[in-house]
Amino acid sequence: MLSLPPSWTQQPPKPDTLRIRQATDRQQALTKPPGSLGRLEQLAVQLAGLQKTEQPTVDPVRITVFAGDHGVCEEGVSAFPQEVTAQMIANFAGGGAAISVLAKQLDASLEVVNLGTVGEVPELPGVRDEQIAPATANLAVTNAMTEDQVCAALASGDAAAERAADAGCRLFIGGDMGIGNTTSAAALACALLNQSPESLVGPGTGLDTAGISRKSQVVDRALKRHGDNTDPLTVLASLGGFEIAALTGAILGCAARGIPVLVDGYIVSVAALLGVFQQPALRDWLLFAHRSAEPGHARVLEALDAKPLLDLGMRLGEGSGAAVAVPLLRAACALHNNMASFADAGVSNKDTAS
What we know:
- This protein has one domain: Rossmann fold (3-Layer(aba) Sandwich).
- 49% of the residues lie in helices and 8% in strands.
- It has 15 helices and 6 strands.
- The strands form 2 sheets. A 4-stranded parallel β-sheet has the order 3-2-1-4, with helices on both faces. A two-stranded parallel ribbon has the order 5-6.
- Helix 3 packs across helix 14 (320-338) and helix 6 (147-166) packs across helix 11.
- Its EC number is 2.4.2.21.
- Keywords: Cobalamin biosynthesis, Glycosyltransferase, Transferase.
């Protein structure tokens, strides 16, 4: 019997339709032409419905970065050596990584979960040691994870969602760190969406044209080995990574606990795609931060019917693109909560003006 978190098999709660109607009515009554704040209005209404409140907010923000190494790196799919994963975990803890800087700027809590690295990671502040194995297996030749391993990774993500809920989190951002993980993400997306590797494989950490071609061939081998099974758990075990599985568990776990999720780039979007394949109602709980420069991200966003807030050419991962989008959500909530209505301000609206 597999030990799966409850959020894997249970539908997440539905948004509060009454709060959505109330928030929509409030937007119509504020001192502005209806719709003039564009998607900021939509964000506020969506958050009001998800948080079941008249006063939506995204604070406090919680960021959890999941890290794990990938056995497929032995196929030469990355421009960086695998030791970088462990080194970057230390950089997160030391405050030197992009997401560390952004979390501090946002006054957001940041934790890192180490699910398994080939390099040694000492005890570090802000880093949870939840290692499953030094790395996944090489997905080009065998299943990346055993069933027990994928369940452990999903459970780790769900536990992170539980910690976020206990901390009173109102918005969750998941980040990723793992050399080789764009290969895994591309393979997962190809399997779920029935796409060719050529359409979803990109440069990742900076591969040249020959490197991208080699990476595409590796993904093609993995897909031929995997076959046409689209069951999310089977696909994840066959082609996924520890950090991608944990992200899926965290996203589902946050939705189950009533916490909206701001989705980062390619890796996190593929984790969200897996979650939506498993629980279609999860889609209501997802906000999309940015469009990654990684070519496969556009197809994943299309499959999720997602319109990201930003397009800055970013492809770093770590949750960095989502962190950059947080001020937009804060602005949406502030405008919704604090603008005066026509009645409050004594301003004539289009219905009363002569």
